[in-house]
Amino acid sequence: MEKFQDLIKSDKPVLIDFFATWCGPCKMMHPVLEELAEKVGEKARIIKIDIDRNQELSAVHNVRSVPTLMIFQKGELKWRQSGVQSCQALEEELSKYY
């Protein structure tokens, strides 16, 4: 598996979804992210990270609530938002970076 630092160094924008399996709103995000992946295709990557399995990474990025979504590009945090987001809002945000 790729290391997180290698993932976020991409020229392509990378949307990270910090989620938890027990989180209701996180479950609502799943179909939204699938739809988003179909729409953006190869222009961006979408990665889901389980906070319970990646506690250290979640702490480093100060994830206090789930879902927390972040967009990284070339190693830089470009955008961050907690809570359920619409596919349209995420697509608009991602499109700023490709």
What does this structure look like?
With 98 residues, the chain is an alpha+beta fold. The protein has a single domain (4-95), classed as Glutaredoxin (3-Layer(aba) Sandwich), CATH 3.40.30. It has four helices and four strands. It has helices at 4-8, 24-40, 55-60, 87-95; strands at residues 14-19, 45-50, 68-73, 76-82. A four-stranded mixed sheet has the order 2-1-3-4, covered by helices on one side. Helix 2 (24-40) packs across helix 4 (87-95). The longest helix has 17 residues, at 24-40.
CATH topology: Glutaredoxin
CATH architecture: 3-Layer(aba) Sandwich
Please write the CATH class name.
Alpha Beta
Number of helices: 4
Task: Write down the domain tally.
Answer: 1
Strand order of the largest sheet: 2-1-3-4
* Overall pLDDT metric: 96
Low-confidence runs: none
Q: Mind sketching the topology for me?
A:
Blueprint: H1 4-8, E1 14-19, H2 24-40, E2 45-50, H3 55-60, E3 68-73, E4 76-82, H4 87-95
Parallel strand pairs: 1-2
Antiparallel strand pairs: 1-3, 3-4
Tags for this model:
98 residues; alpha+beta; Glutaredoxin; 4-stranded mixed sheet; 4 strands; globular
Question: What does this entry show, briefly?
Answer:
The chain is an alpha+beta fold. It is 38% helix and 26% strand. The protein has one domain (4-95): Glutaredoxin (3-Layer(aba) Sandwich).
